Amino acid sequence: MTKDSKTQSIGTEAEASFKSDGEKLGQGQGLVDGERRRRLAKLGFGVPVLMTLASRPVLAGQCLSNMMSGNLSDPTRGQCAMGWSPGGWSGPGGFPTPATWSKIGLLYGNLTAGALPNKFASYTGGATLQNVPAALNKDSLPGATLLRVVLQDPNTPGLDLTIKNSNLTRHFLCAYLNALYSELPANSQLPNPPFMYILKSQQVLDLAGGLAIPAGAAGAPSNYNTFFDSTWV
């Protein structure tokens, strides 16, 4: 995908501004104490236990995807981290940054000259629903709808009613972005230790295609939104 060179430059600067914070978060925390892990394992929880490891809350033991049968089962994925919420992906003022979007091959938006880079309104254009798999568009929004707009908080003042009510698309899209970032090489990610989301991108697409949420997974069997809400903070 061709990206505006100016936007790439902005993304690099934004990434650098957050790198120092990410490094600080990783300092002195290291891995969870082995004894603590053994004690948790003895408890035999059916659903992974939430704990904090570096910059992301992490699920001890198996990823949620390991609870799923059939083609979603993946025994090679050990510990997984909670992802970022739709609001986190939508806003440029925290993390993920516009640079994070660039890393997964999507354009957050073009920064208006002289505008503040941490403001949503400072950007124009950007990736649309046409730039991601159609299966994620569960609410049949127009293909030209900006991804960062879809991800906005439904309570955002002035948000179009159609987008406000598109919670299913918002949740599937957010899970997909988390999965894409998780699948990047560890040395290209900012969190320390490397970020591994609970689901892979193909698993998100499998769910979008109609695969049922397994009874053993958090949020099941109510609905997809509840399930995805359980996979990010």
Describe how the helices and strands are arranged.
Elements (H helix, E strand, L loop, with lengths): L4 H22 L7 H10 L6 E4 L2 E4 L20 E2 L4 H5 L7 H6 L6 E2 L11 E2 L22 H4 L10 H4 L2 H16 L18 H8 L15 H6 L4
Helix pairs in contact: 7-8
Biggest sheet overview: 3 strands, antiparallel
The total of beta strands comes to: 5
Helix tally equals: 9
Work out the radius of gyration.
Answer: 18 Å
Residue-averaged pLDDT: 75
Order of helical and strand elements: HHEEEHHEEHHHHH
Structural summary, described in words:
This protein is 35% helix and 6% strand. With 233 residues, it is mainly alpha-helical. The strands form two sheets. It has a three-stranded antiparallel beta sheet with strand order 1-2-3, with no helix packed on it. The protein has a two-stranded antiparallel sheet with strand order 4-5. Strand 1 and strand 2 form a beta hairpin. Helix 7 runs antiparallel to helix 8. The two termini are 30 Å apart. The model is unreliable at 1-54 and 69-73 (pLDDT under 50).
Outline of the structure:
With 233 residues, the protein is mainly α.
Supply database-style keywords.
233 residues; mainly alpha; 3-stranded antiparallel β-sheet; two-stranded antiparallel ribbon; 9 helices; 5 strands; 6% strand; globular; disordered N terminus
